[in-house]
Amino acid sequence: MSNLKKQIKANATAVASALLLSTAVSQADAQQKAGILGIDHVGINVPNMNQAVNFFTDVLGFSAVTTLGPIPLDDAWKKSNHMQPKTGPVTIKMVKAGTGANIELFEYQDNKGSDQQPGGDDIGASHVAFYTNDISKSVEYLKSKGVQFLGEPFLMPSGDTEGESWVYFVTPWGSKMELVSYPNGKGYEKKNPATILWSPKDVAENQNQSDSKPLSEAEIKSLVEGHLAIWNEKDPKKRESLMAKVYADTIEMVDSHFVAVGHKEINGFVDGLQQKSPQSKFSHIKAIDVNHNIARLYWQNGTPEKPDAVTGMDLFVFENGKAVKLYVFVDNK
């Protein structure tokens, strides 16, 4: 019986391995044959084209680019696309939605189809999500324009989407859409996955980096001084404001014992230091060294009675006007 169980287990393992291999091969084969590079546009039916275009341009700040129609639709087309026989011609406009896929708007004259928006659990219900670096600021602005929100922004506390904030809103014609923000990345990215989800945030950051001018030595030294001010600031809110000027949103602080990513994690770590030793202060040991986009700061930390209780060195890497990497070295005494 024992040998039979081992054989069954071995066979099951072989089948599972074969299925995984088959899936990987099939996926690669499909990618090659389909030749799909990405999402070009998302189509939305609207009851009034002028209303929709005004919303996307005047409220969301997009650009209307192309127009087609009105185009009469023959009976065969309507039948194959499950449309009402008496629905009239269609007008189509494409709007450019910042960085990412375009949005294609359809308005049917004398539309005989349903004017009821699908419910959240209806088959075919969908929504478009727009990325923003500052969701609170975006919500405040859209509310000033009379946009209705279905609640308040919710921050995902854990899991693959940890660090993501999102909230739904409603267009003037009743379609549900979304604002989403994750300036410090999502939780799953910390697991070093083989595939990273596409994000307009990454495209914008890469574009900014390619367009940016190198920092001067004086500018880098000023940022390092700002770093010292961050670590000496007692107020977490003021510290957060200083971080936005010195650190990139996705800055990585690498210590010998841990890695902190983003303003929130670093702010929490600094706050813990401040609480443990409220009288301690960071200061220079010697002048800041700069080599192209890299800087080196030798520091000490301690009370007025013993200012060099702890000493060490911070190594910075700067890109796009801010620190993107911070390596912390603490001296052993």
Encode the helix/strand succession as letters: HEHEHEEEHEEEEHHHEEHEEEEE
- What structural class is derived from the secondary structure elements? alpha+beta
Number of domains: 3
Q: Beta-strand percentage? A: 25-35%
Described by strand count, sense and barrel closure, the largest sheet is: 7 strands, mixed
Number of DSSP strands? 16
Rounded mean pLDDT is 87
Radius of gyration, in angstroms, nearest whole number:
27 Å
CATH fold field value of the largest domain: Nuclear Transport Factor 2, Chain: A
CATH C-level class of the largest domain is: Alpha Beta
Q: Which architecture of the largest domain does the CATH hierarchy give at level 2?
A: Roll
Describe the fold and architecture.
The chain has 3 domains: 40-111, 2,3-Dihydroxybiphenyl 1,2-Dioxygenase, domain 1 (Roll); 133-207, no CATH class; 215-330, Nuclear Transport Factor 2, Chain: A (Roll). The protein has 333 residues and is of the alpha+beta class. The protein has helices at residues 2-34, 49-59, 75-80, 135-144, 200-211, 217-232, 236-246, 262-276; strands at residues 41-45, 63-71, 90-96, 102-108, 129-131, 148-149, 154-155, 165-170, 176-181, 247-254, 259-261, 281-284, 289-291, 294-302, 310-319, 322-330. The strands form 3 sheets. Strands 10, 11, 12, 13, 14, 15 and 16 form a 7-stranded mixed β-sheet that branches. Strands 5, 6, 7, 8 and 9 form a 5-stranded mixed β-sheet that branches. Strands 1-4-3-2 form a 4-stranded mixed β-sheet, with helices on one face. The termini are far apart. A hairpin with a 7-residue loop joins strand 14 and strand 15. The longest helix is centred in the N-terminal third of the chain and has 33 residues, at 2-34. Helix 6 packs antiparallel against helix 7 (236-246) and helix 7 crosses helix 8 (262-276).
